[in-house]
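Sharing a chain and its predicted structure for anyone who wants a worked example. Both blocks are below, sequence first, tokens second.
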Amino acid sequence: MIRRWADHATAALPIVWLTVLFLVPVGFAVVFSFGHNEFGSVRLGFTLDNYGEALSSLYLETFLRTIVFAVGCSAICLVAGFPVAYAIARRGGRFARVALGLIVVPYLASFLVKVMAWQIILSRGGPLDALAHALGSPDPVDLLDTPVAVVIGTVYVYLPIAVIAMTIVLERIPADLLQASRDLGASPASTFRHVTLPLARPGIATAALLTAVPMLGELVIPQLLGGGKGLLMGQAIATQYGQSQNYALGSAMVVLLVLAVGVLVAVLVRLTRGFDRVAA
């Protein structure tokens, strides 16, 4: 009896964690998003004015830019990370763990240190500017405080996540399936397209999810590399909560981002549908 209760308690821990750290905060955001703003507080009620303002021309462009930014940077991570993951999983041999460690160890370094390092690299007079001058470029290279710098920093920070997620799945593809495809006369390109890539879909979807979702709410990288110019929705939300103290409008923006995450998850689930049949 005691062991059964212990098993139930252990199984309930993830549910409690999810409820306390996710569902409850989102629930407060949903309730506040329909309330009436009072400076520094929210008067509960029901109004759609906050959503109307959040989707007005002032913020709609920022919201759409955030979605494009997250999807685009995630796609770059997938395109750049898949060859690396494939090389580690299928060609790494005894050096696979070493190669994976070389990717994991820098990822574990301080987030702020990595982003601030890119501040130095991309600024005028930095290493990139010096390299351009050494190659004969007459124009200075100053990418700091630009959208390009935000994309570079974001891809750099989240690329290891994509590589690790895809490597794990690629390693689990049975070698017998690949050998059977070659035995049946398929070319390496055909084997990759019809066997490896379909079986890697869960890893690709996981990598997209683990990169795009945090990118939707990214705040630090745009602040440090983009000059704090309000490029993305995370900055707009932080402004509403921190400076304007418009909690109702900020909550409406949070709910819209959560809905965007839900749509993204639904699309990825749709893309990976039928994997069981492929694996079988």
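Comments welcome. The domain at 42-279 is CATH 1.10.3720.10 (MetI-like fold).
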